[in-house]
């Protein structure tokens, strides 16, 4: 058994997420999202689906990127 790095639950069905050279252990997707999801720099929502990245800045969509003065950003739907 392993321990979730977010909630501390010691659970027999934890899973690992390998990202950017690090290994993270979680007991549920909710904890994984809490730790791993980027946060929109305009509206502060956690980006769960397709977000946009502009010059190292993350936004939940083109609307928020444009609201922060980013030009030429288009949502891909």
Please characterize this protein's 3D structure:
Helices cover 18% and strands 26% of the residues. With 77 residues, the chain is an alpha+beta fold. Strands 1-2 form a two-stranded antiparallel ribbon. It is elongated. It comes from Streptomyces broussonetiae. This is Prokaryotic metallothionein.
Compile the SSE list and pairings.
Layout: E1 2-3, E2 10-11, E3 15-19, E4 22-26, H1 29-36, E5 52-54, E6 57-59, H2 62-67
Antiparallel strand pairs: 1-2, 3-4, 5-6
Protein name: Prokaryotic metallothionein
Q: In summary, what is this structure?
A:
By secondary structure, this protein is an alpha+beta fold. It contains two helices and six strands; from the N terminus they run ββββαββα.
Strand order of the largest sheet: 1-2
Radius of gyration from CA coordinates: 16 Å
Report the count of strand segments: 6
Class inferred from helices and paired strands:
alpha+beta
Arithmetic mean of pLDDT: 92
Helix-strand pattern: EEEEHEEH
Question: How large is the share of residues in beta strands?
Answer: 25-35%
Largest sheet: 2 strands, antiparallel
Euclidean distance between termini CA atoms: 40 Å
Helix amount: 10-25%
Helix count from the secondary structure assignment: 2
Assembly state: single chain
Shape summary: elongated
**Poorly predicted ranges (pLDDT <50, ≥5 residues)?**
none
